């Protein structure tokens, strides 16, 4: 690429408009682009794109098509050619091996030139795809999870970035994947695959193949990815409901693809001749089942690809090698393994879901079987009653169960310092107990338990008798792991809210809202639990006050009766009769004491 690239202005450029936003972008797209784009290919970037995508196009000849001149000026130093215009500014005779519209088609059309509409822009970009070439197109979902949990309607936006509002009322653009396939077929492109983008259109950290989402509705991998991406993707944002819970429920219903915030379609133009088919290998490149980006400070990309023995992890590009710590250097309790995950992806259901299902259905037999199986598996993994590695830090949300077999799903986080088995089990159960209580989930045990108490109960179900020292040690490990992971995570919002990641671990109760989430629904549920608890406490207080009032009334009646009796003639005569008897009894007692003392003296003199 050249260091100085002139910006071509064919007309229609928006001189003061910029489409670049402060969101995280789409890091998984870079790995997908690196897989699909061969070296030396001609690439057209239509609209704004994540900088990581530019890094993945190091061996290609890249042309940028941007409607905003400020964005074009920034891109000019990184690509071979930049055109600042709308879709009409692209020469009609130019064709490319790969066309990437990573921000959708709305970010391609300029308001300063002829308006083509969604179909018109698609037709112009499709015409720029060479036979045998590929088009990567993002489409935002008007009924995605991000819209369903938004606190404001999609139709009320008044910001500069929302001067074009896309919704289901606009029939000029597709509103689902089936409609998108029909539009692509109409312009001569065939969809080779499609991905569901989570958690938000402007910040995608997970690309999941839609056909796999529809087929593997109980996949522990997909559930863990949706839970993780939606939890971190909406941290610190005010939403109506928990997007992670909604996405996981959609997965089990076979609708995780339909409710995705955005879709990424991979379409190709059929080659006209065999030599054109041989020119590009992108159309024959197998697409991964998932492309994931971790939320760590150093963005890590991992793919899930299909192999002869099922899914396995694949790390595109070079893998960093962790430095070996010095023998006497102080080590943290947890560390991130840069080479993980690797190897086959374990199959099965997520232990978290099975336990949650057992709690909701009050199936104590299932809970006993799962928890005791988990405790026995931990014991079998330990060498001398202590655990290290990924097993020591994996919670129930990172373990899959297939029959009686347990396996760690993502072994990226590892413990170098050995931890007692009971501490590892107590930490995992405490995390699950906290979610049960703060999430408002129904369970078979009393509602007055706090997180520590419910942890002890779950330990008993697992066949372990936890004492206070074990739970305290588990909470110390949890606080240390949270501190390390928050320092590694680039969106550490919990620490910014104050108190640190370990604040309040020992005081979690059923009336607390879920940590790290700002959901109206969950806050309302927490308020209802607090109201019920206050009602119970008020009833107990009223019962105590009524009991004290009744005791006070009985005491007053007894005192009044005593006062009444003390003023009667019979009471005075009884006192006169009893007084001599009392004096005589005291005298008799004194005489008896003197007699005993005299006898004692005589016995002493005889001796």
From TrEMBL:
Residues 487-499 have a biased composition (Basic and acidic residues). This is Uncharacterized protein. It comes from the Bacteria. Residues 487-518 are annotated as: Disordered. It comes from Micromonospora maris. InterPro entries: SAM-dependent_MTases_sf.
